[in-house]
Request: fold
Amino acid sequence: MRPALVGLASLFLASAASAQAQTVNVNLGSVSQNGSDNSLMVGFPWGSGSNLTLPDNMEQEVYQISNVSTAGGDLTLTAAPNTNPGAWPTNLPFTSGAVSTAAFNANTQEPMPGGFSFTGGTISVTAALPVGPGLWPAIWAEPVSGQGACEIDIMEAPFDNPNQYQASLHGGVGLGQVVGTTSPLTAMNTYSVNIGDTMLTYFFNGQQVAQVAKPAACNQPMYLLMNLAVGGTWPDQYGTPAANTNAQMVISNVSYTPGTNGSYTGGLVSPTTTAPAATVPSPASSASPAAEAPEAAPAAIPTDKQNPGVLAPTLPASCAPDATAPMITPGDGSLTDAQGNVWDISVSGSIQENGQWVSGGGGTSALQISNGIVYGRDAGQSPVNAGGCFTLNGQNWTPSTPGPVAQPASAPATPATPATPATPAASPATSQCTPTPGGAATGNFTTQNGQIIAPDGSVFIAKGINLYDADIGAASQILADFPGINFIRLASYTPSTDTADYFSGFISQMTSKGVVVEIEHHIGAGGGVPALTGSDLAAENAWFGSLASAFKSNSYVWFGTINEPASGGGLGAEQASNIQTIRGAGNNGIIMISAPVEADVSGASNVVVDQHFYGWEAGANPDPSVPGYNPDQAVVTAALTNSISQDQQLTTATGKIPLIIGETGPSTDGQNLDANAQQVLTADQSSGYGNAYWNWASGAPQDNLTDGAGNLTSYGQDVAGYIGLIANAPASVWAAVCPTASAASVTVAQAGSPAATTTDPTSTPAQTAPPDAVTSAAQANQAAQAQVDT
Reply:
């Protein structure tokens, strides 16, 4: 593990310029061996020897200052045969160029603040890349501290393909997005990344090409690296470099725009060196109103040679009959349609009609009104209608049929005939699944034939977490940590103090953002809790009745009966009594129950199974030294499928009972990572049912999602990325994850897998997911109780 540089973040913040709103250029004209505040350094700022190549990648070049040129105002990195070999690493067959904007501390063998470092904002690099067998040009960013799983690969191009590169993230949920280009890599193109509050958004010539949840490790000062590698483990599949390889990577400009969340430091930039800016689309974001605002778009974008000057978002003629019709972009105004409805776009790209979020309106780059009809431009999230137009009247978002419908401005507008609608994108309060046949907008959550129907008539798929009752003060942090979240299973350990007054502020904040809060009676040390009877049952029902009455007008407040009760012995009687009490209070909201096989809910409606799934349930491990916890993905997936099938045997008054995997995680006992932890997560994420992950807690260092300080762990970051990915998934993905689809068709769980890395070989790897919680947090308002959740 590399030692941390103590106080580096505070040093960075103290020295950063106080007013940094404008775009600045990084001076590319000065290079020195170890770098300084006024010069780039050669190679990478870590480890003796390995700073001149990447041995873990088995690369075949040594980086030398003689291969870096600043002549003519460009920074040129040249790869060539090595004609003067010596001891490793100078005995490698090729020489090449690499530069970093940090500096190298020869005493500690660590990076230190140098010519340019930054946090947040948008970094853009304009470069012409070489293409050929074995060539691997890359532009990437690493933490100056040398600590944390955050490597942002803005561009890496090992494919020996003039129209293909990859945008990558190593850390968090990971990313390996292959990008196809119309402009060849050998031309001058601009590669950018916006480091937002919760998302990383990648651009090619100002057009968004990828987006992924930002790991917490990226919330620190970063420096830039640019290198031209030759050979290596990854490029080998794309060809072996020729012995006479001679290639150049030419960088003409590096610019940085702090935006609203960024800052920079170092002697290689100056606020007076403003880069030429171009108007480009802002990053697309989640449909959730809680999502971050987009940051400043990349600057210094060259004109697209195929479409000169077309850089601002415009609507195709097939959607906007009148080319002069008024248009707005996110956050800059509103439009009023012929019926008097007022339309606007939030800075996150979500649409509102008369102040109400429009289902499927996320990721919009512009609205335009023509003859009283409002049209929208998709920002590119849908694989079918990327960049296409949509009719936005009537609280929907319908893809328009391609084809010109242009007509004079004075003539009545003829809206395009809608094609079969793509699966709607997420509204803040609903899922993205196709509405159940016959489903109607009721303004409340209901159940119907094995599905949960959201207030707008669409199918609700939970994307959530579990939360201790003592931590409801963390609502804002949770909304920020998990963009796209729509479900919280709130574990109540002490009903005597978990009153309606105690929960009201949290519930108001969450449900106003479209997040369901399920208040669940979480008692007992693990599974097999005996059914409550007598005075205990009466006290439980009194608590349920009080809450049910207090929140009966809020459809986003659900209830959950006792956690993991034992089988038999009056189980059905207890849960039936709970249901009767809640309904008797005039509350017709959703009720979640555990182990329903023995419960009689034939006459009940709006009842949902609370399925739990951990590694021990997947069967025996073939390795006798590792009892249980079979790691075979097919076995794990089959076990979950079987559990779901058993739990859905019951029929309610509205048909088959729906199901949510209300508790899951990488550890069964709360102490040790299960041998099949990853297979369990893959199974439940690809099951087609909603999930809630165990657990967020501020004071339990053994929790999965958070550490002892309330920060997201590596596992927590992965869950945040998964929730964000699902929230922003295109129609094709949501068609797969809805309960009516085959689990085998789901591809979401694999969507963020990185393909390769340019990782610093001495950096700290991402941590293995920590174990599940074994005790509750110290209850802030109540006596602590030891709990185990399995």
Summary: The chain is about 15% helix and 25% strand. The mean pLDDT is 72. Residues 25 and 182 are 26 Å apart (CA to CA). The first helix runs from residue 8 to 15.
